[in-house]
C-alpha cells in the first residue's frame, strides 16, 4: 500500500482504468462463451446463435459513434462508469428462468452488453492519450499495447471461465455471480476515477462525431476489414465446428479459445519490441507488411482444410499462427489511432475508429453464422482471407512518414 501511495496520479489513474477494463473484459468474455455454448446445447442453429449477437454488434457501432461525443462532453470517467453499470444490468437480465430466455429477450440483453462494452473500451483507450505526455510515442505504444494485450489475455480467461461456470453452475447462476462482482468494481470506480478525464476544453459540436482526418478514416476502414476477417470464423463458426466435428466438450472448446485469446493478448503486449521506436512507426509500410503476412496464413489454412490435409492439426496450428499475426496487426492499429487522434476531445476520433471496428465485428458475426451453416468453416476462412487483403489494400493510403 505504501508503494501504491508513492505512485504519480497519472499512474494511479492508468491502473484504475486498466483494472476497470480487466474486470469488464472477464465478464464480457465469459458471457460470450456462455451464450454460444448454452444455446448450442439447447439446439439452436449456428445462424440463430449468431443472431443473438446481432444487437450486441449493432449497438456497438452506434455506441462508438455517439460515445466518443459523449466522452468529450462529460468526461471519460463518466462514460466508463456508465458502461460498467449497464453491463451489470445486462447480466441481471439473463438471471431470469430459462423459459423466459427467448431469442428476442436475449438479443435485448446483448444490446445492453454491446453498449456497455464499447463505452468501456472507448473510455479506456482514449484515457491513455490523456495520461501520456505529448511526444512520448514509445511510452504511448507500450501503454496501449499493455492495456490491449492484457485485456485480450483476460478475455481468453473469460472464455475459459464461461465454459467452467456453465459446467459448475447454471446459466442463471453464472450471470448472478458475475453481476455481483462487477457491481463491486463499479462502486470502487465511481469513488476513485478522476473527474473530467478526457473532457474537451471546448464543447464539441455534434457533427464532429464523423472524423475529418483522411488518415483516421483510412485506418478505420482497414480496422473494419481486419476485425470482420477475424469474427467471420471466430464468433460462431469455430466453437460450433469444434463441438460438432471434433466432438470437443464445453471445457475443451472454452479452453482452446481461452488459450488462443490469452496467447493473442500476450503477443499484443510484446508488440512494441518488434519495432524500432527510436525511428518511429511508418503507418503505411508497417500496416501493409503485417496484413500481407496474415492474409497469406489465413488463405493457407483455408486451402489445407479444403483438401482435408490433417484437418485437426492444420486448423489448430494454423489458428495459433493466425493469432500471433493478428495480435501484431491489432496492437499496431490500436497504437496508431491513439497516436493520430486529436488530443483535445480524443474520444471523438477514437470513438469513430472503434465504430468501424464494431461494424467489422457486426459483419463478421452475421457471416460467421450464415456462411458456416450453409457452406462450412472452410468458406468462412476464404472470406476471412479476402477481408484481410482488402485491409492490406486500404492500408496503402495511410501516412508514409514515421510517427516519432
In short:
The protein has 404 residues and is an all-alpha fold.
Number of strands: 0
The unreliable regions are: none
Helix content: over 70%
SSE order, as H and E? HHHHHHHHHHHHHHH
- Amino- and carboxy-terminal Cα gap: 36 Å
Largest sheet: none
Please tell me how large the radius of gyration is: 20 Å
Q: How many helical stretches?
A: 15
Shape label? globular
Q: Give the overall pLDDT as a whole number.
A: 82
DSSP strand (E) fraction? under 5%
Alpha-beta content class: mainly alpha
Describe the model.
The structure is a single chain. By secondary structure, the protein is an all-alpha fold. The protein is 79% helix and 0% strand. The protein has helices at residues 2-5, 9-41, 46-52, 54-74, 76-93, 103-131, 137-168, 171-192, 214-234, 237-244, 250-270, 283-306, 311-340, 346-375, 377-395. It is globular, with a radius of gyration of 20 Å. The mean pLDDT is 82.
Could you give the topology of this structure?
Layout: H1 2-5, H2 9-41, H3 46-52, H4 54-74, H5 76-93, H6 103-131, H7 137-168, H8 171-192, H9 214-234, H10 237-244, H11 250-270, H12 283-306, H13 311-340, H14 346-375, H15 377-395
Helix pairs in contact: 2-3, 2-5, 2-6, 2-7, 2-8, 3-14, 4-5, 4-6, 4-14, 5-6, 5-8, 6-7, 6-14, 7-11, 7-13, 9-13, 9-14, 9-15, 11-13, 12-13, 12-15, 14-15
Can you give keywords for this protein?
404 residues, mainly alpha
